[in-house]
């Protein structure tokens, strides 16, 4: 079995959903003070999102095999368990 792609990290998804909810709240608000506070929070959340990896690098269900042939040699690259 192999996964199509690595799964998305839960921490990233939670932070992304918080950002989406803050944007919805920002769009609905008319108070300039609250809007400025939400803008600052959204900016801070986006900064956190950019600093963390999206996908789980150690996903156990993801495997990939790469084969490269060059002249008389070949290389096999394995991502995942070797069993």
From TrEMBL:
Protein name, per record: Group II intron-encoded protein LtrA
The species this protein was found in: gut metagenome
């Amino acid at each position: 079995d192999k996964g199509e792609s690595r799964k998305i990290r839960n921490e990233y998804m939670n932070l992304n959903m918080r950002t989406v909810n803050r944007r919805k709240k920002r769009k609905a608000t008319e108070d300039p003070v609250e809007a400025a506070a939400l803008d600052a929070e959204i900016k801070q959340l986006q900064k956190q999102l950019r600093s963390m990896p999206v996908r789980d690098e150690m996903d156990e269900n993801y495997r990939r095999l790469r084969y490269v042939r060059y002249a008389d040699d070949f290389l096999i690259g394995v991502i995942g368990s070797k069993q």
